[in-house]
Specification:
About 20% of the residues lie in helices and about 25% in strands. It has helices at about 5-20, 25-30, 40-45, 100-105, 135-140, 175-180, 190-195, 205-215, 230-245, 330-335, and strands at about 1-5, 55-60, 65-70, 75-80, 95-100, 110, 120, 145-150, 155-160, 225-230, 250, 255, 260-265, 270, 280-285, 290-295, 300-310, 315-320, 345-350, 355-360. Strands 8, 9, 12, 13, 14, 17, 18 and 19 form an 8-stranded antiparallel sheet that branches. It has a 5-stranded antiparallel sheet with strand order 10-16-15-20-11, covered by helices on one side. A 4-stranded mixed sheet has the order 1-4-3-2. The chain is an alpha+beta fold. It has 10 helices and 20 strands.
């Protein structure tokens, strides 16, 4: 896949980051949350070369900014800023294009079939006012992420997999807030957004972007505060406003290595995070980093140690919802766990590129 962002955005980003008058995203993190560790899920969106087996080189000049990730290996990411827009190409032998964010990032899956077939889009299982489709119930790897809180104890075995999402749209990095604020983010401005980011209408990437914006514009469910953060700075501000300034930390799921689907067993040392409130931010499918964040008063967060059948160890973030009465009755979790809305706490592990904000 290949993305090209307009050179004006690259130029403005470089000017802003170089400016002494404006804090970079990392500096803003340190200013707002001094001495607070930055989880890997944030670091990789600031420093893409932290991704295993990848490197990033930046070349400024001669028509824009070029960012090349991948050490020249097949499957690396190449982003050219200033070369004429955002382009995504992922050609399959059968002539179709498939972009899957569900197995890795918990987001949208978009499939374009051979010519003449419609585009199929389904939504994130972490947006609770949507009903799951039959395909999602039977085929979505995210069904394994849901479980009941009573089962979260040492010895419980679950079938999971940990993979870093290398699809370009979902591995897109943060823009400085000052740049993100210059780009519209609303359905009524969608033609302008496509033009600004040089994305062709009707393409797979345009459909994914449209779906992300529409999800962000959906009404929040009862008892929920929601917000789509288009920069790290705005995500920090929203989370701090809900958890408490100077009293917030970020955590994310981390695994020793990427693994296929396999059995994982919960080990001793399950840790409940402080308080019964959390802001959960889910990575969305967009050319730059956008997170769907929501906070309720009926959420508990845990750090859960896991060990895979192959010996791989992971520390997974689990979020448990104690009141699901406002969720869609046909949500994926109810269909998988065979329970009714509002009856028992429902938990789910978070993919590695999602972030949870909790009290210190």
């Amino acid at each position: 896949m290949e993305f090209r962002l307009p050179s004006v955005l690259a130029f403005l980003a470089l000017v802003i980051i170089a400016s002494h008058a404006v804090l970079s995203p990392e500096q803003y993190w340190n200013y707002m949350m001094p001495n607070t560790p930055m989880p890997k899920a944030v670091k990789v969106l600031l420093y893409p070369d932290l991704t295993e087996g990848k490197s990033t080189s930046v070349n400024v000049g001669g028509g824009g900014v070029n960012v090349n990730t991948g050490k020249g290996k097949p499957g690396g990411t190449y982003v050219n800023v200033g070369g004429g827009g955002v382009n995504v190409n992922n050609k399959k032998p059968n002539g179709g294009t498939s972009v899957n964010v569900g197995g890795n990032g918990g987001g949208v899956t978009v499939n374009t079939r051979p010519k003449g077939k419609p585009v199929y889009v389904y939504v994130s299982p972490f947006i609770y006012n949507y009903a799951a489709t039959e395909t999602q119930v039977h085929d979505d790897p995210n069904v394994a992420l849901f479980f009941l809180e009573k089962d979260m104890h040492p010895g419980t075995t679950m079938t999971l997999h940990f993979t870093e999402n290398t699809q370009t749209m979902t591995s897109a990095t943060f823009l400085p807030r000052q740049i993100a604020q210059t780009i519209p983010f609303s359905s009524d401005k969608f033609p302008e957004i496509l033009n600004k980011l040089s994305v062709k209408p009707g393409t797979v990437e345009a459909e994914m972007m449209k779906n992300t914006i529409e999800e962000c514009e959906q009404p929040q469910i009862q008892g929920e505060d929601k917000y789509c953060a288009t920069s790290l700075e705005s995500m920090i501000d929203f989370s701090a406003s809900k958890i408490g300034k100077n009293n917030v930390q970020a955590i994310s799921t981390e695994a020793e290595k990427q693994t296929p689907m396999q059995k994982y067993t919960i080990s001793a040392g399950v840790q409940k995070m402080t308080g019964d409130k959390a802001v959960v931010c889910h990575k969305q499918n967009y050319p730059y980093a956008v997170f769907y964040c929501h906070k309720t008063e009926t959420t508990r967060a845990y750090m859960v140690p896991l060990e895979g059948a192959d010996g791989t160890k992971a520390k997974a973030v689990a979020v448990c919802h104690t009141d699901t009465s406002a969720w869609n009755p046909k949500h994926l979790a109810f269909q998988v766990l065979k329970v009714e809305p509002g009856t028992v706490p429902i938990c789910h592990f978070l993919p590695q590129d999602h972030i949870v904000w909790v009290p210190k």
